[in-house]
Amino acid sequence: MRVPNHIAIILDGNGRWAKAKGMPRGYGHIKGCANLETICDDIKDLGVKYLTVYAFSTENWKRSREEVEGLMKLFRSYLKKCMKSAEKNHMRVKVIGDPSAFAPDIQEKIRQLEEFSKDYDELYFQIALNYGSRDEIVRGVRKLAQDVADGKLVPDAIDESCFENYLDTAGVPDPDLMIRTSGELRLSNFLMWQLAYTEFYFTDVPWPDFHKEELIKAIEKYNERDRRYGGVKEE
Ligand code: IPE
Ligand code: IPE
Ligand code: MG
């Protein structure tokens, strides 16, 4: 079985999973967060080199104050626990998105985790927090425009690979497989530039129930795909 080099996952369905059990949405987030810890281990065991997860979008602030506060609490404890996971899996962790909207202590935890794990190179784990693809592109364009204004970059030098360096994912290869759990068939503002030639896998399984067997199923489906990148396969 060919293992994708980079898997991206939209962790969706925590709320509905909890509701179906007669529990509050926050309970789903707690279980979803626990599942993320296990999936990191499974991804490492399978030999995947890059994992990116969508954990909080630029649009998720629209949710109730109670839900957002619950999520912030969970991020605080998760970012702390993630240090152990980074150490165990020799995993480098990078947060993508705009952290400036988070409370200063969360921003500090992100900084510490990134610093602590920066020399690990067995798995590269990107966590998308306050991430939106449009926001990422606009922030990148702003930095690029500044470099042009400062005379560090000439417009003629701007091509796709130059532009990629201005994205949060600079230096990370594009995902090979994108998984979205819980039945929705959309991107919800996730990695729109990076997913240009990625294979998509959608499953009805909600994120808290998405375990190693489901991950293997997704990789098996990926193995059936014929990636042509616009070309024609030689007969
Ligand atoms: C994903 O689960 C987690 C976040 C977006 C933070 P949801 O909270 O979107 O769960 P559903 O989709 O409402 O069931
Ligand atoms: C996308 O899920 C964002 C995350 C999983 C973090 P949403 O649940 O926010 O997306 P929509 O609202 O169903 O499109
Ligand atoms: Mg959702």
Automatic annotation (TrEMBL):
Keyword presence, Oxidoreductase: no
InterPro entries: UPP_synth-like (IPR001441), UPP_synth-like_CS (IPR018520), UPP_synth-like_sf (IPR036424)
Active site: D12, N60
Enzyme class: transferase
Pfam families: Prenyltransf
Catalytic activity, EC: 2.5.1.-
Chain sites annotated for binding Mg(2+): D12, E199
One GO molecular-function entry: transferase activity
Keyword annotations: Magnesium, Metal-binding, Transferase
Cofactor note text: Binds 2 magnesium ions per subunit.
HAMAP family according to UniProt: ISPT
Family per record: Belongs to the UPP synthase family.
NCBIfam families: PRK14830.1, uppS
Classification via PANTHER family: DEHYDRODOLICHYL DIPHOSPHATE SYNTHASE 2, DEHYDRODOLICHYL DIPHOSPHATE SYNTHASE FAMILY MEMBER
Name under which the protein is recorded: Isoprenyl transferase
